[in-house]
Amino acid sequence: MMMNFRSFSLAAVCVLAGFAPSVTAAASPALQSSTAVPISRVVAQGRTQSTWNKFSPKDGSFSILMPGKPEEEHKSGTSPDEPLEDHTFKVQTDEGLFIVSYAEFAEELSQANPQNVLDEVTKGFDGGGTKVVSQRNITLNGTPGREVEYTVTEGINARARIFLVKQRLYLLQVVSGKNEHRVRFLDSFQLMKKG
Q1: What is the percentage of the chain residues whose pLDDT exceeds 90?
Q2: Higher-confidence residue: 15 or 54?
Q3: How far apart are CA 30 and CA 36, in angstroms?
Q4: Do 75 and 29 meet the contact criterion of CB atoms below 8 Å apart?
Q5: pLDDT at residue 27 above 50?
Q6: 5 membership: H or E segment, kind and range
Q7: How far apart are the C-alpha atoms of 130 and 173, rounded to whole Å?
Q8: Which residues pair with 89 in a beta bridge?
Q9: d(Cα 93, Cα 48) in Å, to the nearest integer?
Q10: CA–CA dist 177, 77 (Å, integer)
Q11: Which residues lie across from 146 on neighbouring strands?
Q12: Whole-angstrom distance, CA of residue 19 vs CA of residue 32
């Protein structure tokens, strides 16, 4: 069975790149209700200061610092090659756009080579107005991952981290003009239990 990792990462990239909602919906029905915002507004600086708080979803599978209360989107898969469940949590402030999402795939994914899965997800960051600038393998307490820096519209760089835990794929993405906000968000991610 061919898993559709590409639509998972492309959907979040569409939100980050500020594409029209119709393009976002085509990439992933989970984001049909998303309102795309011009990227220039996302990286505006200095208007307000957000309060960073620890966030953990209802299932308690992870925690992360976010600069505000996240909006949640949920979708259940409708075909065998889509994620069974897709959850997205996002916060948009004057400091940037911060997204953490996870997708639950079929059990077969836990048998796949993690590097092959991460390679496939990373391919989703190339094309449609985005381009991978750099990537490197990372780990989080022994969990395989990948960090990807990519350019979105207007030449603004974004950073993502992808982690694979059994058949669950975590995707963290941030567009911010300040490196300190990118680092704070990405480095705060902790797995609380195996998902």
Answers
A1: 45
A2: 54
A3: 14
A4: yes
A5: no
A6: helix 5-17
A7: 13
A8: 72, 100
A9: 8
A10: 34
A11: 137, 162
A12: 12
Please answer whether residues 171 and 102 qualify as being in contact, where contact means their C-beta atoms are separated by less than 8 angstroms.
Answer: yes
What is the b/e burial string over 83-115, where b = at least 16 CB atoms within 10 angstroms of the residue's CB?
bebbbbbbbbbbbbbbbbbbbbbeeebeeeebe
Predicted local confidence at residue 6, as pLDDT: 45
Pairing of strands 71-76, 85-93: antiparallel
Question: Got the DSSP string for 136-184?
Answer: EEEEETTEEEEEEEEEEGGGEEEEEEEEEETTEEEEEEEE-S-HHHHHH
User: Could you tell me the pLDDT band of residue 108, with boundaries at 50, 70 and 90?
Assistant: confident
Determine phi and psi for 31, rounding to 5 degrees.
-105, 20
Task: Provide the pLDDT confidence category of residue 35 given band limits of 50, 70 and 90.
Answer: very low
Task: Please check the confidence at residue 43 and state whether its pLDDT lies above 80.
Answer: no
Whole-number Å distance between alpha carbons of 99 and 12: 8
What is the per-residue pLDDT for 77?
Answer: 74
Which of these, 50, 180, 123, 184, lies nearest to 172 by C-alpha position?
184
Full strand arrangement of the beta sheet holding 190-191? 53-55, 62-66, 190-191
